[in-house]
Design a protein that fits this description.
The structure is a single chain. This protein is of the alpha/beta class. Helices cover 41% and strands 26% of the residues. It folds into 2 domains: 113 residues, Rossmann fold, CATH 3.40.50; 122 residues, 2-Layer Sandwich (Hypothetical Protein Tm841, Chain: A,domain 3). The protein has 11 helices and 13 strands. The protein has a 6-stranded mixed sheet with strand order 10-9-8-13-11-12, sandwiched between helices. A 4-stranded parallel sheet has the order 2-1-6-7, with helices on both faces. The longest helix is centred in the middle third of the chain and has 15 residues. The chain starts with a strand and ends with a strand.
Length: 277
Amino acid sequence: MTVKIVTDSSSDLPPALAKKLGITVAPLYVRFGEKSHRDGVDITADAFYEKLVAGPVLPVTSAPSPGSFTELYEGLAKETREIVSIHLSSKLSGTYEAAQAGKREVTAKCRIEVVDSRQVSMGVGLPAILAAKAAAKGAGIDEVVKMVNGAVPGIFLAGALDTLEFLEKGGRIGRAQAMMGAMLNIKPILSVQDGEVVPLERVRTHSKAVNRLYELLEEHLPAREISVVYSTEAAEGQKLLEHAKKLAPGQEVYFARFGPILGTYVGPGTLAVIVLK
């Protein structure tokens, strides 16, 4: 039987791509006040960003329950005896631990390997894509896990934020730091290293930050997989996507959108490049 691949909605995998590759996506949750939404199920990205910007209530994100993972794995165990489950950095979310706990409660005869991607967004999605492609070609669970673990250290992410407001509201940076950034019109470029979000560079003006993304993309090519991710400015993302395609002719470049989980912290106007070297 083919190895089944699972990831979570923080991976920002385009739904059509996940369906095409047979990847099962476990939704995380985003809550506005008392109302909770399953990411990618009960709320669209457009509706989320409208609420984020215009609404009076700041959203809060949360991981799936262990029980939801148990149910998901039990369902897949009817189709396979091997599952590889790839998730958001354990240093940023309880999703990985929930998956591990859910795995322990599975009663079906099925081997399940849970992998910490130590990444976010398509930094989670790209290893899941690799795993699904390998599984489709007949790779066994040991080969798939080895491939994913080998790929994780080679992921590079650079994201240009248009505002520090939502990082501050989400408690990821201090208020003084956010205010100073706004006063100086600083546009941070962030990365993820060893599972944690770290500042990569600080640039004045949004246009300079976007131009720097173009440069960083070129510096990290050739790459095995490439993705461009945007939050609200699709046209800006499309330009970067076309540039990436020119730099890597004949190679598929994935175009994704920051969903509610990452969008809660990066906010509108964010653009990122993610490559698997």
